[in-house]
Write a structure and sequence with these properties.
Layout (H helix, E strand, L loop, with lengths): L1 E6 L5 H8 L5 H8 L4 H22 L6 E3 L5 E3 L5 E7 L2 E7 L4 E6 L15 H9 L3 H19 L16 E4 L2 E7 L6 E7 L10 E5 L5
Parallel strand pairs: 1-10
Antiparallel strand pairs: 1-5, 2-3, 4-5, 6-9, 7-8, 8-9
Helix pairs in contact: 1-3, 4-5
Length: 215
């Protein structure tokens, strides 16, 4: 398993577009350029670049076609590999593994109030957050690990966060069991992975950060 990550930069935005847009198909170019905010466009661009680099460098796959499953989750056509991309604020991360999984990163935003999300929590989760010494850390832990599980499941926005609970690093979504693992990428972000494969509990990912060129 490899986790690649980088941070966006407004100063480098146009040079990134000029340099890297030509390597993508017309469909992917349109997907990147449909965003109005430079932040969203660059996050989309960098996520795709991290995936491309990871496949080429660590799995010897120079070109790949991405398909979309009925649940809208992307997959690699013709390869027994799986990937997932997540971004929050300035960070974008891409994970590639030999089994299906999801990753979620969330910026530790001090302006967020966990009380605004009470309707998305079960009573047990709400109580756990309120009883904790650091309520905001408890909230972001709750949020990030659940988002990772939803992404591993592939349910997307149609799956309510309060429809399942995470207990001892595990949860069940629509009769399927998922295992959740905390990872560290940056001190200002919460990061979790999830998979239906129990191997994720003991895996030690290889991390690769990019501060300059990706390709």
């Amino acid at each position: 398993m490899i986790i690649l990550y980088t941070f966006i930069s407004e100063e480098k935005h146009q040079s990134l577009l000029d340099r890297y847009l030509p390597v993508f198909s017309d469909d992917m170019k349109r997907d990147i350029l449909r965003y109005r905010r430079w932040q969203d466009a660059q996050l989309s661009l960098l996520g795709k670049l991290l995936l491309r680099h990871g496949l080429r460098t660590f799995y010897n796959i120079p070109e790949v076609e991405i398909g979309i499953l009925p649940n809208k989750k992307p997959y690699l056509k013709g390869h027994n590999l799986h990937f997932n991309i997540s971004h929050s604020k300035d960070l974008v991360a891409c994970v590639i593994a030999e089994y299906p999984l999801g990753i979620d990163v969330e910026y530790n935003d001090p302006k967020v109030s966990y009380r605004d999300f009470i309707f998305q929590m079960t009573p047990n989760e709400m109580q756990e957050i309120q009883d904790g010494m650091d309520k905001m850390k408890g909230f972001f832990t709750y949020w990030t690990r659940k988002e990772a599980a939803i992404k591993a499941h592939g349910g997307g926005m149609i799956l309510p966060l309060d429809s399942f609970e995470v207990t001892n690093g595990e949860c069940v979504i629509e009769d399927e069991k998922f295992f959740i693992k905390e990872i560290f990428i940056h001190k200002d972000y919460h990061s979790y992975m999830a998979s239906s494969d129990p191997k994720i509990k003991n895996v030690v990912p290889l991390f690769k950060q990019f501060e300059g060129d990706i390709l």
